[in-house]
Fold this protein.
Amino acid sequence: MERRTTLLTACLAAGIVAMGAADEAYRTQIQAWRQDRETRLKADGGWLTLAGLFWLKEGESRFGTDPAGDIVLPEGTAPAKAGVFALSAGRVTVTLLPGASGRIAGKPLAGPAPLRPDTSGSPDVLEMGTLSLNVIERGGRLGIRLKDKNSPVRRSFTGLKWFEIAEAYRVEANWVSYPQPKPVKVPNILGQTEAMPSPGYAEFTLNGKPVRLDGVLEDPHAEQLFFILRDQTSGKETYGAGRFLYADLPRGGKVVLDFNKAYNPPCAFTPYATCPLPPAQNWMPVRVEAGELAYGKPGH
């Protein structure tokens, strides 16, 4: 009897140690992911460097540090009159003026050059010292996105804050595929609506309540599902406009949603981003006390 008790105790102890090791491995993996998230955010081309967004009008738009220009660059970063962006028939070209210099794809800019927008999948980026400028397209509108390695937002960044890691918020959900990808209307902060293809939805129970989330594909060759969501912490502990979450493509009718990796959109840090907002069906009826907290909120 004593031996059997000893064996049982040993087995239970071994199980606890194995569980603890699994928990620790999971925590380590999430911590590494979160550190990578912050590193990318703070990088030279990260969202913290976003410093301006200027919508183009048909014809020419002058840019430089001159306050009277159409696109005003940060003081001391470029000549007063640095160049001209020209929009014609949906295409944008850039020309630098004497005294200004810049590069595209590492090559000095000489003469007018066409600029492919971000919707091309391979946008042309004009680099001028600490600045980079490229064309973005949103809802048929074309604009110039400005990034500055010395942006005030980047310089004053105080770091991300997170809920404690909780493995209970790593959910294996049922995946229900649509017969054909369904266009989901996704609003954005510009007041526009974009139709994004959704191959299906995830359904699961969280904190005792049924939840359904539509996943979308950002491009036809996407290797992950993109979820734009809100929950009952939005506007309280977490960013009011919602959060983002990526998940690997479904396998065997299941998809894993790890809300410990739910994170804030760029709009949580800068007014110059053009973030998508959660569609109404992705407003979750539960509190998700996992993932990234609201940036800069007192107490967080």
User: Anything to note?
Assistant: Residues 7-20 have pLDDT under 50 and may be disordered. The longest strand covers residues 170-187.
